[in-house]
Amino acid sequence: MISAELQPASTGFDPQDEGWMRRALALAEQAREAGEVPVGAVVVQDGREIAAGWNRPIDSSDPTAHAEIVALRAACRALGNYRLPGSTLYVTLEPCPMCAGAIVQARVARVVYGASDDRWGAAGSVFDVLGSTVLNHRPVCAGGLLAEPSAVLLRAFFNARR
């Protein structure tokens, strides 16, 4: 289930966060137009967009082509580094365990997401990969920014498919 509720572990938002999340929502809309689950992601560092992506598993025949993974891969290529210290990842849906693992591996400093995912969420909804004290990196995580438009887009997509 997709939820527009704010996660209790949220640390708050910075003034520029809403603009970047709106950019991620525009990317989610591109995913929807392409027949993919509407999730968009943007990697930002030092106030500028490094890379962006949207869900592409169907188009690419790749189950790992979630918006976050697409954006992280592009950001790493753009910077010539498999680590993204000091970066913020904006994503319209709470990352799943696979994406959360990639976020930790890339050393993303901060994650801001829209809607919570009560089935696959790994930022505290179902799992807490991003907050795990067992792992050697824990990004700051803030959920619920523009949660309602993110959730509405996802619900409309799935309702249309039923």
Structure description:
The protein is built from 5 helices and 6 strands. With 162 residues, it is α/β, with parallel strands linked by helices. Strands 1, 2, 3, 4, 5 and 6 form a 6-stranded mixed sheet that branches. Helix 1 runs parallel beside helix 5 and helix 3 (67-79) packs parallel to helix 4 (97-106). The chain starts with a strand and ends with a helix. The model is unreliable at 5-10 (pLDDT under 50).
Task: Give descriptors for this structure.
single chain, 162 residues, alpha/beta, 6 strands, 36% helix, globular
In short, what is this structure?
The chain is an alpha/beta fold and 162 residues long.
Low-confidence stretches: 5-10
Alpha-carbon distance between the two ends: 15 Å
Mean pLDDT: 94
Round the Cα radius of gyration to an integer and report it: 14 Å
* Beta-strand share of residues: 15-25%
Structural class: alpha/beta
Helix and strand succession?
EHEEHHEHEEH
Q: Rough shape?
A: globular
The percent range for helix content is: 25-40%
Largest sheet: 6 strands, mixed
Count of DSSP E strands?
A: 6
